[in-house]
Give the backbone structure.
Amino acid sequence: MCGIFGAIANENVSELLLKGIKRLEYRGYDSVGMAVYNNGSINIKKGAGEIDSINKKLNFLELEGSCGMAHTRWSTHGKPTDKNSHPHLSQNKEIVIVHNGILDNFLKLKNDLIKKGYNFLSETDSEVIAHYFEDKLKNNLSIKEAIKDFIKDAEGTFAVLLMHKFEKKIYAIKRDSPLVLGLSDNRFLLASDVYAFSDLTSKAIFFDNDEFAEVSESGYTFFDRLGKEKNKTIKEFEWEQDESNIDKFEHYMIKEIMEEPLVAKRLLVSLENEQKDNFDKLVSMIKKSRKVLFIAAGTSYHASLLGAYYLHKCGVESQTLVASEFQHFATVDKDTLVIPITQSGETMDVIEALKYCIDKKAKVFSIVNVPYSSIQRMSDASINILAGQEVCVAATKSFINQAVLLLRVAKEFSYKVNLDNISDEIRGVLDKAEIIKKLAEEIHNKPDLYILGRGLSYPVAREIALKIKEISYIHAEGMMGGELKHGTLALIEEGVPVISLISNKDYDMVSNTKEVESRGAKTIIVSNELSGDFKIETENDGKFGILATTFGQLLTYYIALNKRLPIDKPRNLAKSVTVK
Ligand code: F6R
């Protein structure tokens, strides 16, 4: 994962870099570092920990110069330590790099370099890149020639920014990991995504794979893998800039949950207006396909399970597979419509599965939140869920809009649902936060939690369990109610909390609830038609799936608040998962 940010301007860039990297912190927060070029010298500060605390210790703003780069890390190779933090220097201290991605063949490259006498200070795969370039330059290659070799020799994924001590320039190289150049008045900005600089400009150029650019004060040039100059199109992108502001909320998570009524409405309005053509296209592509196959990971996978349920109920053959296992279980051909669902549009597991589908000649229609993301650009067509920036690592409002979109699609295939009042119904759940707070108080100290669902409420049970695990640090299982008696029931004993999601009058779910109650479980019944602990105010089963998720998100938030956990930045995680 990791976030990278580079800037060349006619002003001191350290403040720009700090702000940019802070906006990318959701991509990883194990360590942070900055390198600034200043008249033939490169100065670096870096350390393990979150940006604010490391900045307090090191004061990045002391770095002076008008060309520089910064990095925020999610550890893959090597623990989160000062030494493993980026930027990494070459041995002769003339070249500095930051890297996002994984070099699959780093051990081979590293061993070759060790044989040539290079010493490594870190355990990272990335440090190889700095030494690799030093070695190439020692052999009288220019940086551009060395980059061509690097693209040939490197296996794996990379977005790399590189500076040389004797040039006020940044070289940027990309394969699979995201990279974009932002154009803002007298500044050139290089970043992992447009959000990093969306407060400064709405003009950007997106890198394609195995492409590189040379960026200086006076301009930029793009090259293909063979070093041939390329013309690139400048894209004007739109991104709601206000939404990242935390306003009056204590955490982004609660802010983003509270935005759900608004963003659901915004999406539905757009499907009748500016996104109507895309929406009609999605419906027509489903009609023309033999089957629909969703690909997604994590929370987006749970939304896709809901989508597969909704479409299946309307007689559309549809399935979903977790992206990382896709190639082992999927049968795809030219008559399959593949629908990747992804908030970030950058999830590497989804990208890999998608490449496999494209190879098999399947049609691809993606559902994304981040515009111009890699997955959107790989697709035949795409629609935006318009949830706006999600800063909290846990996906909340993006899940709601993914599900709302899928339900709206199902409606076109005769799923009976009125979506006109969905925003009010979500608000109805939010208005009952006090009840949810009390439930959270009752269970926040429990070590285990089970959530049961059937059919449409099964994906919701999985999604609530995921939220509880990642944000509340409680072991949680989201289960099919029917599967309980096949093993897991053995774990139910006096006082174990079990949340039962009962949509309409699902009597099988009622039986499963009784089964755990008779073994001493403390059940929390969430239902729209039956009496219980939390009432979801809707007549419709499709919408129950969405509203019960909002209930689960709030429950998660209040449990984590009780436990004083780092809600927006849970340990070991990052928002955009750009590694396999
Ligand atoms: C959980 C969460 C993750 C993501 C998953 C896929 O709260 O956010 O499970 O859903 O990493 O990410 P996207 O949707 O960006 O492909």
About this structure: The longest strand covers residues 31-38. The domain at 249-415 is CATH 3.40.50.10490 (Rossmann fold). The chain has three domains: 3-236, 249-415, 426-580. The two ends are 10 Å apart (CA to CA).
